[in-house]
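Narrative summary of target 7.
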Amino acid sequence: MIEWPEAFAEDRFFEMRVGSILLRNSGPCIRCNTIRLNLDKNERIEEFEPYATLTSFRSIPGLGVLFGMYYQMDVLETPDLYQQTLLRKLGYPSMMESVRANPMTTRDGEGDD
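Modeled conformation, tokenized:
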């Protein structure tokens, strides 16, 4: 989870990096009406939220209601690949510096197969 002082800040992010994982914005995700279906009963739910609220301030003419953003994930597995993608001369830290500064943890039950 990313905590940010403003709502929908991810709309403005071009890329994000956590350790050796690079996420690049690949465009808007449009909210569909599937959330209004009860698939077990094969019927539409009359409640129109959260779609109605999103429609009031997140509509893009000709596209639909913006729900969020899609991000492409690249795992920069080796120091060489990391440095080729995130050049030190542009101010990016080394892979080890980045991993130390951005430790990844899992919550209980995550990653258990």
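Residues 10-101 form one domain.
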